[in-house]
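Protein in question passed on here:
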Amino acid sequence: MKASRRSVTALALAGGVALAALTVAPAAQAASTGITVSNIVVNGGKPIVVGTSDAKEPSLNFRITVPAGYSVDDASRYNAEPFLYHGSTPAKGIAARDALYAGGYTCYRVSTRVADCKGTLWIKPSQLNSSADAGTWKVGVVAELYRADGSLGPKEYKTTSVTAPVRRWANVTVNAGPEPVTKGKTLTVTGALTRADWATHKYAGYGSQTASLQFRKANSSTYTTVKKVTAGSTGALKTTVTASVDGYWRWTFGGTATTGTATATGDYVDVR
């Protein structure tokens, strides 16, 4: 049976205004709504990598099951939404304004009480005020029911076993010279490894990290690693190689638990 489609207004857009609009009840006093949220997948299971200016919209998929007496067809009577948070509990994460919410989602009816939902998170770099925000975020759920008269019923904050890595965007540059170079002579390859600093919202050098120098022959589509080099304290990369054939040189960085991967656009060198 083909699922029917309905649009759902998310509980809140990510950001300071939305977070301020949420009232947090003490977790110990939270009544059970009977709503369950399962099958949560954030960004296809891949890390969420955020830079200094562009908003990111990683995918968010989950299943809602409402309690007996409710129907997923009546969106005005319930809300349920996964969100990312730091802290010991989802409620404390919200209270500390340390949470990232969905920008919106659409749910598809599976049965009277079950719906599968697809949407996105909405993450702006300005929401990440410290580089300490990089790392593993927990995924919680906020659920609430509305009574028949339209008044707000119980609200519940749930923990889940799902996590989502949030990482700082990295950049790497390359410059190989001299150009052109005589065959058999020394070629110097330099570059710089930087990453987003969420405190200043600028890019800063990422020192003491290992980057790979790769080469691709002019008539090939495949890069091969030539050597590995450790960046200096400011993120500077520098090494020398012997020029042999025309081709492209680049630096590539494999990322860390807090920082995404980066690969430079190849710099072509003519060998004569």
Observations:
- The helical segments are 16-20, 90-95.
- Residues 34 and 67 are 5 Å apart (CA to CA).
